[in-house]
Amino acid sequence: MSTTEQTYIMIKPDGVQRGLVGEIIARFEKRGFKLAALKMETPSKELLEKHYGDLADKPFFPKLVKYMLSGPVICMVWEGLDAVKTGRVMLGATNPLASNPGTIRGDYALQVGMNVCHGSDSVENAKKEIELWFNNDVKQYKLDAAQWIYEA
Ligand code: UDP
Ligand code: MG
């Protein structure tokens, strides 16, 4: 666990279409995480198949790729204490119906096939995803507010 841990967070096409971009960014900002990279992207099928490579043999895989191709996505890297695990907690469960209120999926989604937002599930996968989506082009700067977020 470190204060420079990074996670890859992606607002999926339904999140963009439903006007949830600002809301989702605001949650990570307000929590105290540092924005390290941000872009809008219309990913290729190849990129999405790589991103979701671990799920290639799942029955829902073709539907998942089609969903992710249905519109632009917002790609982000957020940095801070325990960012990967905390990001997943902020997202909620994969199935929105099982997600607690107060989580992104628990507040804004109902079905697993349109669950609004992606978050890396391990530090190792976060590294792979940041390389895949940003080619590791992540900004380095000091967040001045950090002195009010992290204990000395
Ligand atoms: N998904 C789906 N049906 C399922 C499981 C997953 O459509 O039964 C989709 C859903 O959009 C999910 C994505 O596939 O977010 C990736 O699945 P994963 O198990 O990695 O869930 P996540 O890490 O996004 O919570
Ligand atoms: Mg996953």
Automatic annotation (TrEMBL):
Binding site for ATP: 12, 60, 88, 94, 105, 115
MF terms in GO: ATP binding; nucleoside diphosphate kinase activity
UniProt-annotated catalytic positions: 118 (pros-phosphohistidine intermediate)
Keyword list, A-Z: ATP-binding, Kinase, Nucleotide-binding, Transferase
Catalytic activity: a 2'-deoxyribonucleoside 5'-diphosphate + ATP = a 2'-deoxyribonucleoside 5'-triphosphate + ADP
EC assignment: 2.7.4.6
Cofactor(s) recorded in Swiss-Prot or TrEMBL: Mg(2+)
InterPro entries recorded: NDK-like_dom (IPR034907), NDK-like_dom_sf (IPR036850), Nucleoside_diP_kinase (IPR001564), Nucleoside_diP_kinase_AS (IPR023005)
Domain Nucleoside diphosphate kinase-like: 4-141
GO biological process, one term: CTP biosynthetic process
Similarity annotation: Belongs to the NDK family.
Name assigned to this protein: Nucleoside diphosphate kinase
Species this protein is from: Saitozyma podzolica
Lineage: Eukaryota, Fungi, Dikarya, Basidiomycota, Agaricomycotina
